[in-house]
Design brief:
13% strand; two-stranded antiparallel sheet; alpha+beta; 20% helix; Alpha-Beta Plaits; 5 strands; 4 helices; binds iron/sulfur cluster; three-stranded antiparallel sheet
Amino acid sequence: MPYVVTELCIKCKYMDCVEVCPVDCFYEGENMLVIHPDECIDCGVCEPECPAEAIVPDTDPKAEPWLELNREYSTNWPNLNRKKPAPADADEYKGMPDKYAKFFSPKPGES
Ligand code: SF4
Ligand code: SF4
């Protein structure tokens, strides 16, 4: 039961999740993070740390549309093992609907 990052992360990237993950299984895209489903040990400590409530267990119905995206991009994007500053405008995008359609970028982050 790995945990999954949903579109609520897009353009927020607070990265509080990265700081607490014991196995460093977050990967960084240009404007969101994903979790590698085979590396996540299902500890769940990242879920309550996310200010955007973007992380859910894969048993949650909200996870389903994002499972494949997490799997695909965690093999393409660089690993992230330290917290970096959030984007200055992150709060403006917190909780906004349909962020995938509006803003998703397949480009890798700069880790
Ligand atoms: S804390 Fe939440 S919004 Fe921030 S990078 Fe992690 S998953 Fe994305
Ligand atoms: S559930 Fe645990 S292992 Fe999985 S991404 Fe979150 S902190 Fe990392």
